[in-house]
Design goal:
The chain has about 300 residues and is an alpha+beta fold. It folds into two domains: about 10-230, Alpha-lytic protease prodomain-like (Up-down Bundle); about 235-300, Alpha-Beta Plaits (2-Layer Sandwich), CATH 3.30.70. About 65% of the residues lie in helices and about 10% in strands. It has helices spanning about 15-45, 45-75, 90-115, 125-150, 160-195, 205-230, 235-250, 280-285; strands at about 1-5, 255-265, 265-275, 295-300. It has a four-stranded mixed β-sheet. Strand 2 (about 255-265) and strand 3 form a beta hairpin. The longest helix has about 40 residues, at about 160-195. Pfam families: Cation_efflux (PF01545). Keywords: Ion transport, Membrane, Transmembrane, Transmembrane helix, Transport.
Length: about 300
Amino acid sequence: MTSLSHSHDYHSAADARNERRTRWVVLLSATMMVAEIWVGTVTGSMALIADGWHMATHTLALGVAALAYWLARRWAADPRFSFGTGKLGSLAGFASALALAAVALGIAWESIARFLQPRGVDYREAMLVAAIGLLVNLVSAALLHDGGHQHGRGHHGEHARHDHHHQDQNLRSAYLHVLADALTSVLAIAALAAGMFLGWRWLDPAVGLVGAAVILVWAAGLIRDTAAVLLDRVPDDALCDGIRRRIEAPGDVRIADFHLWQVGPGRFAAIVALAGPVTAAEIRRRIGPDPRLAHVTVEIG
C-alpha cells in the first residue's frame, strides 16, 4: 500500500487577499443584517425583516467560509484529523442551514398573519434602513468583484491556474449572493414605498413571503450540498472517471476497488485497490500531478 500524496493545505498564501476582502464583506453584511432585523421589528415591516434575514443567510455562508479557512490553518498539523479540517465549513454550513430554514418558516408564518391582521408600519424609517442596506450590498459586491478580478494576476503554471479557477468560482458565488441581497433590498424599498405613497399595505407582507421563500430555497440547497460532503458522496464524476481511465488505459492493470470523497473545498481523497503487475511509480505517473487530489492511497495486490 502506497500513499502518493498527503496534503491538508486547503488555503494557499495567494488566497489571503480575497479572504481579507471576504472578512470585510462579512463585517459589513453582519452589521447591516442586525440593523435591518431590529428596525424591521420596531417599525413593523415584514419586508425589512425578511431582507435582514436574507442578508443573514449570505453573511453566514461567507462567515463560515472565512472561519473554516482560519480553523483549517490553525489545525492543519493536528494529527487527530486524519484527512485535515476541510470539512469544518460543510459541518457548520449544514447546521446553519437547518436554523435558517426554521427562520424562513417563521417569517412566512408572521407574513401570513399580517395579511389576515394588518398592522401599522413606520414606512419612512424602514425605507431609510432598507436604502442603507442596498448601499452596503453594492459596496460588498464591488469588493468581491474587484477581488475576483485581481486574483488571477501574477500567477503562472497549470496548477496555479486550476486552483485560482476554483477560488474564483467561490468568489463568484459570494458575489452573486450579494447581488441577490441587493435585489431583495430593492424589493423591500419598493414594497415600503408602495405602502407609504399608494396605501398598498398588503405588499409589505407579500415581500416578506417572497423573502422567506428565497431563504428556504437557499437553505434547502445548502443542506443538500453540505450533506453530500458529510456523507462522502462521490463529489466529482468526471474526476472519478478520469482517474479510472488514466490508470486502466494501458490494459495491464484492473481497478478492484475505488473510493473518492471530498475532504475540503475543491480537494479530494482517493483510495484505489489495483490488481496487476504495476508499480506505485507508474500509477503516480498515470494519475499525474492533479492539485485537486490532496491524498491518494494505492493498494497493489
